[in-house]
Design goal:
This protein is α/β, with parallel strands linked by helices. It has 5 helices and 9 strands, in the order αβαβαβββαββββα. Strands 4-3-2-5-6-7 form a 6-stranded mixed β-sheet, sandwiched between helices. Strands 1-9-8 form a 3-stranded antiparallel β-sheet, with helices on one face. The longest helix has 19 residues. It is globular. The protein binds inosinic acid and magnesium ion (MG). The site of inosinic acid (IMP) has 19 residues, from β3, β5, α4 and β8. The site of magnesium ion has 2 residues, from loops.
């Protein structure tokens, strides 16, 4: 019988991944973004709105780098299925629990790709009477833009590769990576490689 350690496959050193942005680089950039946001929003009690699920990881680190009073909320939007191509369809799956009238909103997103999701969401929030609406995004895949989206605070621009990790998934996998990686072979990720499950 195999020992339990023989069944453990490391996800973080999965050979199908090539590190694009290291954990240290992500965390250093977040510290800078947090200080900048704290300076610019002092006295305004901003409401940070995280877009589920991908932005949760970025939001939770970013919040702890913004040393002023603030609130958080979550929304869920669909624009992608379980594939690497956008459907172009945008739906609100989970809405805010509070009104945003007269609040200073900062939308927190993991990645801006075509811009379809964000251009819809930002316009939607502005129409609800927020005092201001700005966007912070960890990643900008600028070469793929179809709709103009102004990113007020940006972590990193990246080339046109499908990336995973630090909240970003491929078919719900890889969100737990502490770094951003390029998925070398998406088909292998879906079909070829076994996905480890807890054995107890
Ligand atoms: P957009 O509407 O095309 O800008 O897509 C935004 C959403 O698509 C993001 O919030 C992600 O969920 C997803 N997405 C776009 N590019 C990638 C990627 O490279 N890896 C994982 N998810 C992505
Ligand atoms: Mg997403």
């Amino acid at each position: 019988m195999a020992t339990s350690s023989a069944l453990i496959q490391s996800e973080f050193s999965n050979p199908n991944l090539e590190v694009l942005i290291s954990e240290a680089d992500i965390q250093n950039r977040i510290k800078d973004l947090g200080s900048q946001i704290a300076r610019e929003y002092a006295g305004r009690n901003p409401l940070l709105i995280g877009v589920l699920k991908g932005a949760c990881f970025f939001l939770s680190d970013l919040l702890r780098a913004i040393d002023i009073p603030l609130g958080i909320e979550f929304m869920a939007i669909s624009s992608y299925g379980s594939s690497t191509r956008t459907s172009g369809e945008v739906r609100i799956l989970k809405d805010l629990d509070v009104p945003v009238e007269n609040r200073h909103i900062i939308v927190v997103e993991d990645i801006v790709d075509t811009g379809l999701t964000l251009s819809y969401l930002l316009a939607n929030l502005k129409s609800r009477g927020a005092a201001s609406v700005k966007l912070v995004a960890l990643l900008d895949k600028f070469e793929r833009r179809e709709r103009a989206v102004e990113i007020d605070y940006l972590g990193f621009q990246i080339p046109d590769h499908f990336v995973v990790g630090y909240g970003l998934d491929f078919a719900e996998r890889y969100r737990n990576l502490p770094f951003i990686a390029v998925l070398k072979n998406p088909e292998a990720a879906q079909l070829g490689l076994p996905i480890s499950t807890p054995s107890t």
